[in-house]
Amino acid sequence: MKVEPASSIDGAIAVPGVKGISQRAVLLGAIADGESRIEGFGRAADTETAISVVRQLGVEVDEDGPETVRVHGAGLRGLRAPREPLDFGNAGTVLRLSSGILAGQEGRFELVGDESLSARPQERIAEPLREMGAHVETTDGHAPVVIEGGPLSPIRYELPVASAQVKSAVLLAGLLAEGGATRVVEPRPSRDHTERLLRELGVAAKRRGNEISVAPVDHLPPLAIQIAGDFSSAAPFVVAATLLSGSELLVQGVNVNPLRTGLIDVLARMGANIAVFNRRSVGGEPVADLEVRSAQLVATRVGAEEVPRLIDELPLVALAAAMARGETVITGAAELRVKETDRIETVTTSLKALGMHITAGDDGFRVRGVPTRPKGGGVDSVGDHRLAMLGAVAGLVSREGVRLEGADAVAISFPGFFDLLESVTRR
Ligand code: S3P
After folding, report:
1. What is the CA radius of gyration of the chain?
2. What average pLDDT does this structure show over 105-110?
3. Global confidence as pTM
4. Which candidate, 233, 331, 347, 336, places its Cα nearest to that of 290?
5. 296-344 pLDDT per residue, tens
6. Rounded-to-integer distance, Cα 231 and Cα 285, Å
7. Which residues contact ligand 1 via a Cβ below 6 A?
8. In a mutational test of the pocket of ligand 1, which residue from 191, 285, 342 has the highest number of ligand atoms less than 8 Å from its CB?
9. Catalytic site residue 380?
């Protein structure tokens, strides 16, 4: 695909429901009693994986249109081990969160993923789940992961990395542990969608400083939830509108959970013009509308403290920094190396190829900004959805456009990405 340069971004958009909440809602619905109803389901390959996995586990799921999903819960310990491996495709969140639930189910479960998912570290979930009493084997630290579930005991676990996926796996296992609360201590706050959903279900999920505790339950009531737009899906549009002069973009109904919106703070520091208004609460999560106008940016620093709040948006921060005045330094982001690709390498390679001045560090990037349009060229997503979206935005802000290889990777989180982008692009 060729992404041609744009003059500006202009219009109003809404993006599909939060991917991580859509996945969590399906998983929790699967172990709840009765029928859970999910509205605003963010349909994408990674969320469909949550549905196909719970179906493999014997749960009935009805899809009433693209954004409404009904899950007929099998009860807290009612999941059935299938004979075939559970296929998680590219969906790391679903694999890791499911592991926590499966650790407390009777049976032997084999969890497999695609090539990218099979390269990602899984000892980080295996270790705490073993400590709770489950039998968990990884393949040299990776998928296939084999879990033999059974009775679990509560633990207090200090996360070695700030990872919402690992935190959630332990908390979900904690629902099934007998004899007291399971506690997870995180080095820095990471997204709390799991905790919020549990509270919606009446479960005592409490935070004290950086420690989150969850009490075991006998059963979960069904969930009725409305999911707002995914901030990570809105982010490429926000960055494109910021970088293209004369832009005016309205994003309606987007989840603005403060543990997800670090990009707004970083861009604001760089001089961006982003208004957050019409704040409300939907399904236990903060939601708002965003208004973005273009701005000339200046360089900034992003460090470990801030990283969990914008981990999936750091590729876009690197692009914004490449067009800002001055040198931007991003550190404390070694986790980028174990995402769908090694995003420190893939982002550096991609932006360099388009004429930008970026160097990879062990745990981040150094970007020398040039406040004019980069030349353009070719980008290969190598199957990474966030890289495909980065390449698309880079194409719009470039002088000569970007030939995007592997553009279809956007379907992992946002199948309608290119149509929506085209609808607000002025050339
Ligand atoms: C996610 C957590 C983050 C993020 C991922 C989704 C989640 O991963 O990068 O895209 O839904 O919990 P880590 O928890 O591994 O940092």
Report:
1. 21
2. 98
3. 0.98
4. 233
5. 999 999 999 999 999 999 999 999 999 999 999 999 999 999 999 999 9
6. 12
7. 20, 93, 163-165, 168, 190-191, 311-312, 335
8. 191
9. no
